[in-house]
């Protein structure tokens, strides 16, 4: 009897990556275009971390990311930031650009979420148009 064991080859972004035959895999990262999967910084050598420790570490990381996002959301409406900075923070958080049309629906949304007036958002639109 002959048993043949072969590792599958998975093509990711132009590279050949051998797939683990035992099915072991961590959270991987692929950032290309709109696709993004988080790679945990708690990646450890197999067998050095038990499942409950790994789960706890991942939960801590997720809590840290949530706290950071909450701080960033608060900073987009902070009076310590200029209107231009608040709008840039909003753009970064939402991965959207400030629309060029002053009547675009997002202008009101941006104004509300940054605690600016619609006129202040439109002033930033005009300022950017002259650049």
Topology, please?
Blueprint: E1 9-12, E2 15-18, E3 30-32, E4 35-37, H1 51-75, H2 83-94, H3 105-114, H4 118-129
Antiparallel strand pairs: 1-2, 3-4
Helix pairs in contact: 1-2, 3-4
Can you give a write-up of this model?
By secondary structure, the chain is mainly alpha-helical. The protein is built from four helices and four strands. The strands form two sheets. A two-stranded antiparallel ribbon has the order 1-2. It has a two-stranded antiparallel sheet with strand order 3-4. Strand 3 and strand 4 form a beta hairpin. Helix 1 (51-75) packs antiparallel against helix 2 and helix 3 (105-114) crosses helix 4 (118-129). The chain is elongated, with a radius of gyration of 23 Å. The model is unreliable at 4-36 (pLDDT under 50).
Q: TL;DR?
A:
The protein has 131 residues and is mostly helical.
User: Radius of gyration over alpha carbons?
Assistant: 23 Å
> How many beta-strand elements?
4
The structure class reads mainly alpha
Describe the strand arrangement of the main beta sheet, using strand numbers.
1-2
Please, how many helices?
4
Low-confidence stretches: 4-36
- Helical content stands at 40-55%
Q: In this structure, how is the largest beta sheet organized?
A: 2 strands, antiparallel
**Helix and strand succession?**
EEEEHHHH
Q: What is the general shape?
A: elongated
């Amino acid at each position: 009897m002959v048993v043949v064991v072969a590792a599958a080859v998975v093509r990711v972004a132009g590279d050949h990556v051998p797939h683990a035959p035992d099915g072991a895999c961590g959270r991987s990262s692929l950032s290309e275009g709109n696709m993004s999967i988080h790679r945990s910084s708690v990646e450890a050598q197999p067998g050095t971390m038990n499942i409950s420790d790994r789960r706890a570490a991942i939960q801590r990381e997720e809590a840290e990311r949530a706290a950071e996002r909450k701080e960033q959301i608060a900073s987009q409406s902070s009076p310590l930031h200029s209107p231009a900075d608040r709008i840039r923070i909003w753009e970064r958080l939402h991965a959207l650009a400030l629309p060029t049309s002053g009547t675009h629906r997002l202008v009101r949304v941006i104004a509300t979420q940054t605690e600016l007036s619609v006129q202040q958002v439109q002033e930033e639109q005009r300022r950017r148009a002259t650049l």
